[in-house]
Amino acid sequence: MPPFNVEYHSEKKNGFRDDLPDDEWLAVVSQKKWLVVTHDKLVHDDSMAKQAVEQYNGRIFYLDGGSAPKWEKLRLFIFAYKKIIRIVKQEKAPFIYRITRNDRIIKVRKL
């Protein structure tokens, strides 16, 4: 069991439709102060999603390799976990970070 709660976008209890635009669910989870870990680069590229992150003080980490095997995504997350916790404790929201396949954590330009 991880030392944190995990919520999935697709869980019915969260009430998010599969086709809900990123900016809408990001606004909800950012207001709840949830930390988002995703492999969806659209959060990085979509201006409406970025605006929701900025407006509601979102905290986003996205893993490179959306089409990579689940084990590779898990490896990236495990490698970055301690750095993610440090960033969350030290940096004021909003922010978006990219976790690369070569184990780097890069801040996406200032929001």
From TrEMBL:
<dbReference type="InterPro" id="IPR041375">
    <property type="entry name" value="VapC45_PIN-like"/>
</dbReference>
<feature type="domain" description="VapC45 PIN like">
    <location>
        <begin position="15"/>
        <end position="64"/>
    </location>
</feature>
<protein>
    <recommendedName>
        <fullName>VapC45 PIN like domain-containing protein</fullName>
    </recommendedName>
</protein>
<dbReference type="Pfam" id="PF18478">
    <property type="entry name" value="PIN_10"/>
</dbReference>
